[in-house]
């Protein structure tokens, strides 16, 4: 008698409905970020919609990479960044690079960060947001080949820090809903 | 799913992020090298998203109309009396304008004035604010199918808004005069002094290179100049304002942060060909500029090549 072998197909398989449900749960954060990019680039007359978009994206990539990396895999981050660059007037690939760096930092430090309380996470995010803004400013300078006014980068860093509590509250509520098992 | 062991899958999973980072750096470099392809990709994305933005923009216009209607309904009677007074003033100005136009016509006939060609224009809805922190640009739903070409001039309701930089079949991107890469030859209206208006991504572009003996005056009107042949002279741009002593800026007439419609004019400036003159370097479109240096006219015949 041949020795017992582990057969992957003998695992309990999910039904199609369950698999679709799982896929939707994994794709939803990226999808919402995509919608945010499209809506914020439409002329809604909101003050500072153009300035709001990069901090919003940095914040949501950070949040999801920290608390639910399966909802924001690197490939989605990359595609979101490229999409942002294609819609906007930024040099192609800059947003993708910055968002991937934020994602990498958040997912490498997540086991340390998850134990900290909210205020400390906010401080860490403030540092990351400021670094991302400075990097974006530096890359913009490199591609235009002359030094730009650093005021927008400063403003972006402040917006990053300011928007995080609100973003975190909304996303936490959303995460809670996603975690809640469907009523059966 | 490929039959790979868990260790290999984990190792591959760790490689995804560095690989994507490298890929994005590659995209950055490729985007700088292949500018033409980048522009095409951008316009393709914009073209597919334009109907969606159009919908959002229509919905927003509807909401704004309803809220405006409710707000105005409360002040109808005062608004009416104010408008009647304004109408009376405007009637007087109408008479003045008619008589001035007649006088102008008469004087032009006296002088055998050569009439200027009437520019053709199309109007498009602004559907996306495609700039960001480091750029100021908007997207119009009107493209090559409506006759828009690169280099056309976009005017808002009451002043210059920008120039068309990229055109797709259904969408055109307009670089606003406030963008950091915008450099426009302008003229100060009262002194007729030339200057260059330089955008810096703020609301108010700066004025540079004006003659040192005629400084811009506070409140003076600024219109486009025709130095480089890119713009017809006399399109209203804005008024001069001093934020600090010695740094004049232009406050544009067009409200560039809340554009809804833009008229795109084709003034056919490129078709005006000046007669040849020694040392004259003709202005060519950047996309079909010859590769050789345009110094041939300056050199004597033996020195070429």
UniProtKB/TrEMBL annotation, chain A:
Membrane-spanning residues: 27-46, 79-106, 118-142, 154-175
Q: Which domain of life is it from?
A: Bacteria
Keywords assigned by UniProt?
Membrane, Transmembrane, Transmembrane helix
Q: Does the keyword Transmembrane helix apply?
A: yes
Spell out the protein name for this chain.
Rod shape-determining protein MreD
- Which species does the entry assign this protein to? Acetobacter suratthaniensis
UniProtKB/TrEMBL annotation, chain B:
List residues of the Rod shape-determining protein MreC beta-barrel core domain.
Answer: 126-264
Does the UniProt entry include the keyword Transmembrane? yes
Tell me which UniProt keywords the record has, alphabetically. Cell shape, Membrane, Transmembrane, Transmembrane helix
Write out the transmembrane intervals.
15-33
Instruction: Respond yes or no to whether keyword Transmembrane helix is given for this record.
Output: yes
Q: Which InterPro entries match?
A: Cell/Rod_1 (IPR042177), Cell/Rod_MreC_2 (IPR042175), MreC (IPR007221), MreC_beta-barrel_core (IPR055342)
- Pfam families for this protein: MreC (PF04085)
- Show the NCBIfam families listed in the entry: PRK13922.12-1
Q: Which family does it belong to?
A: Belongs to the MreC family.
Q: What does this protein do?
A: Involved in formation and maintenance of cell shape.
Name of the protein this chain belongs to: Cell shape-determining protein MreC
Gene that encodes it: mreC
């Amino acid at each position: 008698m041949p020795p017992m072998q582990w057969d992957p197909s003998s695992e309990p398989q999910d039904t199609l409905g369950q698999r679709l449900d799982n896929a939707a749960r994994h794709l939803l954060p990226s999808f919402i970020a995509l919608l945010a990019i499209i809506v914020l680039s439409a002329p809604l007359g909101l003050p500072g919609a153009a300035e709001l978009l990069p901090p919003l994206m940095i914040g949501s990539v950070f949040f999801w990479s920290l608390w639910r990396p399966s909802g924001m895999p690197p490939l989605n981050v990359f595609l979101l960044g490229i999409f942002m660059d294609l819609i906007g007037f930024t040099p192609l690939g800059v947003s993708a690079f910055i968002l991937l760096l934020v994602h990498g930092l958040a997912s490498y430090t997540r086991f340390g960060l998850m134990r900290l309380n909210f205020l400390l996470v906010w401080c860490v995010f403030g540092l990351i947001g400021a670094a991302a803004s400075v990097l974006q400013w530096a890359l913009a300078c490199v591609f235009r080949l002359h030094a730009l006014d650093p005021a927008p980068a400063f403003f972006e860093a402040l917006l990053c820090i300011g928007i995080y509590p609100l973003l975190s509250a909304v996303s936490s509520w959303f995460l809670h809903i996603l975690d809640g098992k469907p009523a059966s | 799913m490929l039959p790979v062991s868990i260790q290999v899958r984990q190792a591959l999973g760790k490689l995804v992020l560095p690989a994507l980072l490298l890929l994005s750096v590659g995209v950055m470099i490729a985007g700088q090298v292949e500018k033409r392809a980048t522009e095409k990709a951008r316009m393709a994305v914009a073209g597919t998203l334009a109907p969606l933005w159009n919908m959002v923009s229509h919905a927003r216009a509807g909401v704004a109309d309803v809220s405006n209607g409710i707000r105005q309904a409360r002040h109808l009677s005062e608004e009416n009396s104010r408008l009647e007074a304004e109408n009376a003033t405007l009637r007087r100005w109408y008479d003045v304008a008619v008589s001035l136009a007649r006088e102008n016509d008469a004087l032009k006939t006296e002088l055998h004035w050569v009439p200027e060609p009437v520019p053709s224009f199309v109007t498009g809805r602004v559907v996306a604010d495609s700039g960001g922190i480091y750029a100021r640009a908007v997207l119009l739903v009107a493209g090559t199918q409506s006759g828009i070409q690169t280099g056309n001039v976009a005017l808002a309701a009451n002043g210059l808004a920008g120039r068309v930089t990229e055109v797709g079949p259904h969408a055109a991107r307009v670089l606003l005069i406030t963008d950091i890469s915008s450099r426009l030859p302008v003229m100060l209206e009262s002194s007729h002094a030339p200057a260059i208006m330089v955008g810096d991504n703020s609301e108010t572009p700066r004025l540079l290179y004006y003659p040192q003996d005629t400084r811009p005056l506070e409140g003076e009107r600024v219109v486009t100049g025709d130095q480089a042949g890119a713009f017809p002279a006399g399109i209203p741009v804005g008024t001069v304002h001093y934020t600090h002593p010695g740094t004049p800026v232009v406050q544009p007439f067009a409200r560039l942060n809340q554009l809804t419609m833009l008229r795109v004019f084709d003034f056919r400036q490129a078709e005006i060909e000046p007669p040849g003159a020694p040392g004259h370097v003709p202005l060519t479109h950047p996309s079909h500029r010859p590769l050789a240096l345009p110094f041939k006219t300056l050199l004597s015949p033996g020195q070429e090549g």
